[in-house]
């Protein structure tokens, strides 16, 4: 099923509803620009915000959430908030502590989704057991991972009790990760895209421009619509109000099968971020 509007959700394997579309805040520094972006997104109908400990902006995100909830006249329960535990904190006790730090900075009593940010070998299984504890305690509504390949997921599921509900990975027309997506789908793990616009590198792509012109949309809107029609949750980053509004204006058109195939054909297995099997943080 493709999302029909900005508040539309998909149901995760544990029954929790997660919005198909949200705001990402990667590399947005603490300050008024961040607070305004989060508040503006919520005011314009966004119901999902994605941050991480390593972004060092959870306090600003929290302030933006509080201002946004008030401005939009909605409750905390109406919003889906995600954060992630960083590599240096991957251990049982250290992950529990990192979670407490994140919710404290955000000014929240719970998170809707908590992710292991990267699959650091020898550490992520122990960290996952901490996420299972938080989940069982009701401190987080859903738990998942980020940047996990199939072999990481297999090891995790073999050695732990609860299956990840989400896998957030780099995903865009140059990196479609079809095999990983199919594996996640077969195992009830929701696929989510970070860097859906390839950090802006796709915005002058000729093939995409042709499709955009046909639909009277921007290239960014075409890519984000492609995400949703592929069953992938997407969280584009922007701090500008007009772009926040534009990114979300993707529910009034549909890409044809031919459009989808043309976009799929752009895949080159090309990353803007590190390969999870070959990174050093």
TrEMBL record:
It comes from the Bacteria. InterPro entries: AKR, AKR5G, Aldo/ket_reductase_CS, NAD(P)_OxRdtase_dom_sf, NADP_OxRdtase_dom. Signal peptide: none annotated. The keyword Amino-acid biosynthesis does not apply. Substrate binds at residue 117. The active site is at 55 (proton donor). The keyword Oxidoreductase applies. The record marks 84 as: Lowers pKa of active site Tyr. GO terms for molecular function: oxidoreductase activity. Residues 32-267 form the NADP-dependent oxidoreductase domain. Keywords: Oxidoreductase. Belongs to the aldo/keto reductase family. This is Glyoxal reductase.
């Amino acid at each position: 099923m493709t999302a029909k509007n900005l508040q539309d959700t998909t149901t995760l394997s544990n029954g929790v509803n997660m919005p198909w579309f949200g705001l990402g805040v990667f590399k947005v520094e603490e300050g008024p620009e961040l607070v305004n972006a989060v508040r503006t997104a919520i005011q314009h109908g966004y119901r999902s915000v994605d941050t991480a400990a390593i972004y060092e902006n959870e306090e600003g995100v929290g302030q933006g959430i509080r201002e946004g909830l008030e401005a939009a006249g909605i409750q905390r329960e109406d919003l889906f908030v995600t954060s992630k535990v960083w590599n240096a904190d991957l251990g049982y006790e250290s992950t529990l502590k990192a979670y407490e730090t994140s919710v404290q900075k955000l000014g929240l009593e719970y998170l809707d989704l908590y992710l292991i940010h990267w699959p650091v070998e020898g550490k992520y299984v122990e960290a996952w057991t901490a996420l299972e504890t938080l989940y069982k305690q009701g401190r987080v509504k859903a738990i998942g991972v980020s940047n996990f390949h199939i072999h990481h997921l297999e090891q995790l599921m073999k050695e732990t009790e609860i299956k990840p509900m989400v896998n957030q990975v780099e995903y865009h027309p140059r990196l479609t990760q079809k095999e990983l997506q199919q594996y996640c789908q077969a195992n009830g793990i929701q696929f989510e895209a970070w860097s859906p616009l390839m950090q802006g590198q796709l915005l002058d792509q000729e093939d995409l421009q042709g499709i955009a012109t046909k639909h009277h949309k921007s290239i960014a809107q075409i890519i984000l619509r492609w995400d949703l029609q592929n069953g992938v949750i997407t969280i584009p980053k922007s701090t500008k109000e007009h772009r926040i509004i534009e990114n979300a204006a993707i529910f009034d058109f549909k890409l044809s099968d031919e459009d989808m195939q043309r976009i799929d054909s752009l895949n080159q297995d090309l990353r803007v971020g590190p390969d999870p099997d070959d990174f050093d943080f």
